[in-house]
């Protein structure tokens, strides 16, 4: 998908990853891209160092920025692609985060995401999510397991939203998950 987008643009891409962690996704970034890695945790840089060193061999630039997704320091219309993996469950304000994604994307730019979401209401899985949420929040860096992330994405100013639901292989209370794309 990203390579198809790059080929349609006929140029190297400027990419932003939200909530980088140890930067395991760098291996999937197309060659010759410029990537900005945004994460609020200053201690992740140490864990990401090996992946960043390896990525610098094939990418134009790799920039680490400490910050939050609700207040991205980049100018408007900067990035061809913004992506996140299991991040929207931890941001303080999902609406503000998605507004910032929209702001920093170039016109026609793509937002890619993979997230776990709230189970259907009035199901045993939703009950388990509600029960486990306080514990999970403390143990897993403020992750909310029953957040209505899909609804937030659909209500955002992004367009051409395509979402696919699937069953994850994470803990039973972290299910279902979604993957998808949207554009500015």
Question: Would you write up a description of this structure?
Answer:
Helix 3 links the parallel strand 4 (79-85) and strand 5 (105-116). The chain has 184 residues and is an alpha/beta fold. It has helices at 2-9, 44-55, 94-104, 124-139, 149-155, and strands spanning 14-18, 34-39, 61-66, 79-85, 105-116, 159-166, 177-183. Helices cover 29% and strands 28% of the residues. It has one domain (2-183): Vaccinia Virus protein VP39 (Rossmann fold).
Task: Write a brief caption for the model.
This protein has 5 helices and 7 strands, in the order H-E-E-H-E-E-H-E-H-H-E-E. With 184 residues, it is α/β, with parallel strands linked by helices.
Largest pleated sheet: 7 strands, mixed
Shape: globular
Helix percentage: 25-40%
Which structural class do you get from the secondary structure elements? alpha/beta
Strand order of the largest sheet: 3-2-1-4-5-7-6
Q: How many structurally independent domains?
A: 1
- Calculate Rg over CA atoms: 16 Å
Query: What's the number of helices?
Result: 5
For this structure, the CATH topology is Rossmann fold
The termini sit apart by: 16 Å
Give unreliable regions as ranges: none
Text of the CATH class: Alpha Beta
Question: How many β-strand stretches?
Answer: 7
The helix/strand series, from N terminus to C terminus, equals HEEHEEHEHHEE
The quaternary state of the protein chains shown equals single chain
Looking at the overall shape, the CATH architecture is 3-Layer(aba) Sandwich
**What share of the residues does DSSP label as strand, in percent?**
25-35%
């Amino acid at each position: 998908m990203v390579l198809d987008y790059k080929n349609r643009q006929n140029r190297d891409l400027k990419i932003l990853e939200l909530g980088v962690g140890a930067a395991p996704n760098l291996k999937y970034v197309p060659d010759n891209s410029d990537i900005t890695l945004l994460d609020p945790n200053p201690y992740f840089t140490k864990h990401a160092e090996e992946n960043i060193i390896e990525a610098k061999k094939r990418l134009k630039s790799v920039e680490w920025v400490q910050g939050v997704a609700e207040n991205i320091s980049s100018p408007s219309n900067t990035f061809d692609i913004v992506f996140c993996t299991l991040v929207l469950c931890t941001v303080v304000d999902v609406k503000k985060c998605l507004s910032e994604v929209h702001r920093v994307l170039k016109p026609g730019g793509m937002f890619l995401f993979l997230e776990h979401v709230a189970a259907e209401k009035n199901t045993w899985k939703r009950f388990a999510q509600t029960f486990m949420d306080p514990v999970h929040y403390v143990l897993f860096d403020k992750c909310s397991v029953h957040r209505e992330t899909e609804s937030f994405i659909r209500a955002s100013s992004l367009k051409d939203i395509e979402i696919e639901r699937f069953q994850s292989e994470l803990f039973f209370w972290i299910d279902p998950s979604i993957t998808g794309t949207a554009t500015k």
